Amino acid sequence: MAAAWEEIRRLAADFQRAQFAEVAHRLSERNCIEIVTKLIAEKQLEVVHTLDGKEYVTPAQISKEIRDELHVSGGKCGICFLPLVINVDLLHIENRANDIVKSEKSIQLVLGQLINESYLDQLAEEINDKLQETGQVTISELCKAYDLPGDFLIQALSRRLGRIIHGQLDQENRGVIFTEAFVSRHRARIRGLFTAITRPTPVSNLITRYGFQEHLLYSVLEELVNTGRLKGTVVGGRQDKAVFVPDIYARTQNNWVDSFFKQNGYLEFDALYRLGIPDPAGYIKKRYKSTQLLFLRAACVGQEIVDQVEASVEEAVSSGNWIDVATLLPSSLSVEDVGILLQQVMRSLNKNSSGLVFSDTIVVSEKFLSSCADLFSDMMQQKAEKEMKNNPVNLITEEDLKQISGLENSYANKKDKKDERRKKATEGSGSVRGGGGGNAREIKIKKTKKKGRKDADSDEESQATSTGLKRQEFPFMSQEEIEDVLKTHMQDCPEELITELAEHLIRPLTKTYQEVVRSVFTSSTSSSGASRRQTMKDLQEEFSNLYNNIRLFEKGTKHFTDEAQTNLAKHLLKTVCTDITNLIFNFLASDSMMTTENYSTITSEVRAKILGKLPEDTKDPLTKLHTSLNGKSVEDFLSCLDSAVDICGIMVKKGDKKKERQVLFQHRQALIEQLKVTEDPALVLHLTSVLLFQFSTHCMLHAPGRSVPQIIHFLSGKIPEDQHSLLVKYQGLVVKQLISQTKKTEQGDDDTTDNLEEEEGADTIRKELQEITTSIKDLVLRPRTSSVTEE
């Protein structure tokens, strides 16, 4: 013993000498770092820097420290916490952890955690203790408690069932582990509970009330029912609406259903719901497999009811009547179900049977619809004739133009020989200047729309089709008016049927009405042709008079300055020029049955409609004529008028000097006669000024009232000074009277002092006008001594 201690003391002394001995060759810290760096660069040494950079650690050391930490942690260690313990970057730890998992099967990496088999065994023991205590555990609870995924737990625990964990995994629901004692206890509870049930009971209510495990209950219940231990059936499968129906209740239920169906021929789903049948449609299909049934939204009906409805519908269609099938069916059936049944019946009927469904439940035959449409035949004829008289412009259509043109073509071929000779004589007279008859000129037109019409009909029809011309539609009756007529003749029809019949008939009636309208126009075409031939002579005479008047009126406007001349030209365009334009348009409209008795009532809109019915070769010059009415130049209008008459076939005779003198005399006499009978100061001034202008210039003047001051100013120097002064004075009084009347109209009948003074002033003006009016008229009516003579 003493020798041993002596040896120990000797070795300790040697060790102490070695420690304090000085080394002859030592490497500095910098040299060590360079050597290690060189070895790492040449890959002869594999080390890892620590987080503080003061040490080198080999991968093997990292692996060793990871295993040590895993062992210390009890078999479960999170990788994210290891950098703080090992003092190495997380990347190196993850790499070494993956190498450890690959090399050792007992260690697994799950959601960033290293887990070994010892931890899983310990986990299984804890779970087994809990299982034996509660009878069942769920995987979802274990996932929350141990922070592990469910699939991993199921896989790990399945390998330990029967070895560490004394229980079994539910095969239907693999998220539950239970013991045999738990299953036996629940089987006994389920058997006792369902044996005591005497009426249909929802299974979900029992699960909630008694705390059964859902999948376990369905498995045990199915087993008990299949083995015959429980007398009953589960209706609805493994769903929330599953219901357990005891056999005793099912027998009573089936008897009631069979009895009701036998007596009534239908079954309501709501009634079966009230009996406790959660899936009525499925129950009926299963109960009546061999019976032919028609399933609706809320009920099903037997074949007897379907046959009854089918026979009634077929009878109504064949007899030309209507029938409401809702009256044949049980009142408990909804309108939607009746509609579905009726659609099925209509499909099964003969395809040749003609009938339509209205209001979802009413079948109406085509014969009945035709009889309803016949009620409006007389009304259509009367309305068409009335519309033709009241507003023929709006009623003409493209098809009517074609038919009318065809009739006119036939009429043109039947002209008498006298017309043919006159036509040849006109054509043989040469140019416009070379015609016989003095200064008359006759303009011959080419009515291209009548020429070769029969040969071009097919081409025009195809062109109208290709261009997609849309026919104008003439309204016949509104839906409300049709309903009123139907109510008068069919008082036994329900209100909703009347409404839908009117809605159905409005389009066919409107379409038929179009044909009636065209028929009325076509039938009146032949008589209108003869009428137009009789009035052609009067038309040309009236046109010539208007044409010559415009020429003479235009000559009178030339005596005024630009502004006054423009105002006079505009007035002439709006009056006489518009009349002659309307005369031309009315003549052309007669070719299309659109003529009116008084052409002066034709408006700009009517002219535009007439233009839309004319062929292209006629439309262009007439459009220019129509547009020129809105201009400021009478010369431009006359130019357009000359182009238009070339198209219209109207013979225009220009007046000669003798004719012009006659027109001037007649115009003057007409104004004088009007002046004699009028007492209106404004009109007296207007007529006197125009007549004095004609006396002074030998020119007619067509002027509005607002141009009277310009006319009086023009007469200065053209008439004696005393006459002009009197005229100016009379003009001033007329203006004052008009102003006074305007103020009185604006102020009303208030008896104020100002109004009384104004009334006195108006009386004074009226008296002065009455005194001077006779003198003003005498300027024109008295025998003239002026050197200006009238021819």
From TrEMBL:
Residues 660-779 form the E3 UFM1-protein ligase-like C-terminal domain. GO terms for cellular component: endoplasmic reticulum membrane. Residues 748-762 have a biased composition (Acidic residues). It comes from the Eukaryota. Residues 407-475, 744-763 are annotated as: Disordered. Residues 7-283 form the E3 UFM1-protein ligase 1-like N-terminal domain. GO terms for molecular function: ligase activity; UFM1 ligase activity. Residues 536-654 form the E3 UFM1-protein ligase 1-like domain. The keyword Transferase applies. One of its GO terms (biological process) is response to endoplasmic reticulum stress. InterPro entries: Ufl1, Ufl1-like_C, Ufl1_dom, Ufl1_N. Residues 444-453 have a biased composition (Basic residues). Keywords: Ligase, Transferase, Ubl conjugation pathway. Coiled coil: none annotated. Belongs to the UFL1 family. This is E3 UFM1-protein ligase 1. It comes from Hemiprocne comata. The gene is Ufl1.
